[in-house]
Write a structure and sequence with these properties.
The protein has three helices and 17 strands. The chain is mostly beta strands.
Length: 620
């Protein structure tokens, strides 16, 4: 039976009766055979206050008191709402079997919306669930969290979440991972061993003594600078395809087949290429590159190259420098003009230009001029060298070969406006060979080309042609022809009103020998001139001023200012006019014609003249 420790006094009997009836009514309303439960019910509905209720079982909807003591047995608060337990000095909550449920209402035991302070919680292998609530573990030490399936830590203040001397092991093959969101995350002094991280961003970091591997569809990116370097003597940096760099973490990561200091390989070359490059039947791993050109090696299976991109108003540069000048040489591509400049010793020396479909200008005096041809050589006034020099040493090849298709323009043109004592075109031959070479050879080789001139010289002031022959036994100028000539082989013609001779021949010979001779195909000496002034016709050794070997005919008058000597019989077939004395000497006498008289041996006589038939022509 419950014990009564306090009694409420009333003013009148009626008040006591009414109050008692109300309590009895409330207790009866509990509809419970258990008096304690009935009293508890009455306490909860009508303010019936009991300081202490001792019972093996208490059932009710509301229990109010300053102290509740439960010794042994189970306390069932199913569907109950405990507004406040006050200060609970010691409690032991033993749950049932329904623990791993989706919501607290389905659990056999659950604590919701509860502040637990300065307490030790032993989950004994079970779950700890907090939904939409803050858990403050300030100054607490968590010795072991056990197995945490999901953990989200959100800090609103820097350094609010700190793990000290912690080891985080994410060792699942299928699930699990460490995700670090935005913000600054410090790993000062930390060592990460054997980590595999996806989609990671590191700023201002240094990776030492390890391998950085980008496998599969991953890539290595730097928005500021990227350093791929080694410092081990002749060691190199390999970029591209190197199968010896395994995709497996922890295996070989060095490009052992790379050559030079920096080797960029997009695809392996053929086996024969490595052998050819090595020169001794080398392979992929044994072939070597030239030690003077091994700072960068570009390799591809087919073509290999490098592209430099710039905007259309800028230049692209490749500079060559040394300890004295960082850009002493180089290549400059001018995108605005589409010209390629070659720089030597800091100056432009050659320009590949797009004029005329592509042209090359050799610069003179570091001054780029306006191109005037496909090959433009500009020799500056202070360059001190030849404009175009060719050292041709192949015995059976051309030094210069021009395949010309011009129709109205010169194939080779020399334009001289300042020449003084030099030559516009000069050929010097100093070979001692006795072969029948030609220093200058002009060969017109088409029979239908009847309108041209093989060699043409035209001058306005200077001599046209001058030949100086220093060889005493060689012809200075030789003109030959074959076939039947229908035009003169050599022609000298002056169509103007000349004040001087057309042909002048001089020979300083003093021995009386010939200085000029004309010959036909069978006889030499058809017309000869000797150094002593004798002219021979059909006589190569004339002894008279006019020495004719053959019949002499004159269709006009012949005037003799001196003696006419006839060495043998002479027939006069027409009139012989004598304006002075004519003396005929022959045989044993002398006949003189003087005017109309004929004197023979000093006696005047008549001259009998017969015609070819023997008829008398004169009768005197």
């Amino acid at each position: 039976m419950p014990s009564v420790s306090a009694v409420e006094l009333t003013n009148t009997f009626d008040d006591w009766r009414n109050r008692t009836n109300d309590i009895v009514t409330e207790i009866n309303g509990a509809n419970s055979v258990d008096p304690t439960s009935a009293i508890v019910y009455a306490n909860s509905t009508s303010g019936f206050q009991v300081n202490e209720v001792v019972s093996d079982s208490v059932t009710g909807t509301l229990v109010t008191g300053t102290r509740l003591t439960f010794t042994g047995g189970n306390i069932n608060f199913t569907s109950a709402n405990t507004t406040s337990l006050g200060n609970v000095h010691q409690t032991h909550i033993l749950g049932g079997t329904a623990i791993d449920v989706s919501s607290p209402s389905l659990a056999d035991s659950s604590i919701s919306n509860t502040f637990i302070y300065n307490s030790k919680i032993n989950l004994n292998g079970q779950k700890f669930v907090s939904s939409n609530a803050d858990i403050d573990l300030t100054d607490a030490t968590i010795l072991n969290l056990g197995t945490v399936e999901k953990f989200i830590a959100t800090s609103t203040v820097h350094d609010n979440i700190v793990l000290t001397n912690a080891t985080i092991n994410l060792n699942s093959d299928t699930v699990g991972g460490l995700t670090i969101s935005q913000g600054t995350h410090e790993f000062g002094g930390a060592t990460v061993n054997g980590a595999s991280m996806n989609t990671i961003t590191m700023s201002g970091s240094t990776t030492q003594g390890g391998n950085v591997v980008v496998n599969g569809a991953g890539f290595l990116v730097s928005t500021n600078s990227l350093s791929l370097a080694v410092d081990a003597g002749t060691a190199n940096v390999g970029i591209g395809k190197f199968t010896e760099v395994s995709t497996a973490i922890g295996t070989e990561k060095r490009p052992t087949s790379s050559k030079g200091r920096t080797h960029i390989r997009t695809e392996y070359a053929g086996a024969s290429d490595y052998a050819n490059w090595d020169g001794a039947g080398g392979t992929l791993t044994t072939f070597a590159v030239n030690a003077g050109a091994d700072e960068m090696v570009l390799e591809g299976n087919t073509s290999a190259g490098m592209t430099i991109l710039a905007n259309t108003a800028s230049n692209s540069h490749i500079a060559f420098g040394d300890s004295a000048d960082s850009d002493v040489g180089g290549l400059i591509y001018d995108h605005s003009l589409d010209d390629l400049y070659i720089v030597n010793e800091g100056a432009n020396t050659a320009v590949f230009q797009n004029n005329f479909g592509g042209s090359l200008q050799i610069v003179g005096g570091d001054t780029v001029g306006t191109p005037s041809g496909k090959l433009h050589i500009n020799v500056g006034s202070s360059d001190g060298t030849t404009g175009l020099y060719m050292d041709s040493n192949d015995a059976d090849q051309y030094g210069i070969y021009v395949e010309a298709s011009q129709t109205t323009q010169n194939v080779v043109h020399v334009n001289s406006t300042t020449l003084t004592t030099g030559s516009a075109f000069s050929v010097s031959d100093n070979s001692a060979d006795v072969g029948a070479r030609k220093i200058v050879n002009i060969r017109q080789d088409h029979a239908s080309a009847t309108g041209g001139i093989a060699f043409n010289v035209e001058t306005d002031a200077m001599k046209a042609v001058e030949i100086v022959q220093n060889a005493t036994n060689k012809v200075a100028m030789n003109v030959t022809a074959s076939g039947v000539q229908t035009a003169p082989l050599v022609k000298f013609e002056n169509t103007g009103d000349a004040d001087h001779m057309t042909l002048y021949v001089k020979n300083s010979r003093t021995d009386g020998g010939l200085i000029a001779e004309f010959a036909n195909n069978t006889t030499s000496g058809v017309l000869c001139a000797s150094a002593n002034g004798n002219i021979g016709i059909n006589d190569a050794t004339p002894t008279y001023k006019l020495d004719v070997n053959g019949t002499l005919r004159s269709t006009g008058a012949v005037t003799l200012d001196s003696t006419l000597s006839v060495a043998s019989g002479t027939t006069i077939s027409s009139t012989l006019g004598v304006t002075s004395t004519a003396t005929f000497t022959g045989g044993s006498g002398t006949t003189t014609v003087l005017g109309n008289s004929i004197v023979c041996d000093g006696v005047q006589c008549r001259l009998k003249v017969l015609d070819s038939d023997g008829a008398l022509i004169n009768s005197g």
